[in-house]
Amino acid sequence: MRAVVFYATREGQTRRIAEHIASGLRAHQVEVDLHNVKTASPSIDWSSYGWACVAASVHAGHHEPEMIAFVRAHRQALERLGAAFLSVTLSEAGAQDVRAPKNQRERSAADAQRMIDVFVQETGWRPDRVLPVAGALAYSQYNFIIRWVMKRIARKAGAPTDTSRDYEFTDWRTLDRFITDAALGAAMRTGTT
Q: In angstroms, rounded to a whole number, what is the distance separating the alpha carbons of residues 157 and 66?
């Protein structure tokens, strides 16, 4: 079976997540192509794939415009393949923060879900599986204005505000479980179990 992982990223955390998915699928004997939608070829041979995954990060409450455009253009192919969607957002970090009060975690989870709902509305695509994934605070990669804005958002959310370093919140174990489930599900869909 052959799969494809498409991603859109700004500071690189979503690329790392997409690479991790591809590597994990390969460990499950799945042949995988990995494409940044900013540079992906406009002509994709969808017939060569048995499964697909789309990973996009959130900025200012919306997923990257290039991913929205990509999914709109290829919605039918993604639906045919039973593609999964990973929404990479700091809100998910807040939802997973066991030290935060329950109401704050619930607000963060609702915010992560709202952004997924907006993506579905903007693209018209209803993924077979959706996984919100905690991203990173890449203070070292932000310009002065973005760093200031992100620090304010982080303070409000109870996240780290020391801008002299970066913070990664991705739960790699949850992602590994997703990969195992995806490999098994894709194999069942294509009859290669």
A: 27
Lowest mean pLDDT among 19-23, 43-47, 65-69, 78-82: 43-47
- The residue type at 100: A
Token pair for 89:
């957002």
Domains of the chain with bracketed CATH: 2-136+171-190 (3.40.50.360)
In angstroms, rounded to a whole number, what is the distance separating the alpha carbons of residues 83 and 50? 9
- In the block, tokens 């913070």 appear at 167
Q: What is the pLDDT, as a whole number, of residue 43?
A: 84
Cα angle, residue 118 at apex, residues 117 and 122 outer, rounded to 5°: 120
Tell me the one-letter amino acid at 176: D
Q: Is 10 helix (H, G, I), strand (E, B) or coil?
A: coil
Whole-model pTM: value is: 0.89
pLDDT in tens, 37-47: 998 777 899 99
d(Cα 101, Cα 85) in Å, to the nearest integer?
A: 28
Alpha carbon 131 to its chain centroid, in Å, reads: 7
pLDDT reported for residue 86: 97
With beta carbons less than 8 A apart as the criterion, state whether 10 and 59 touch. yes
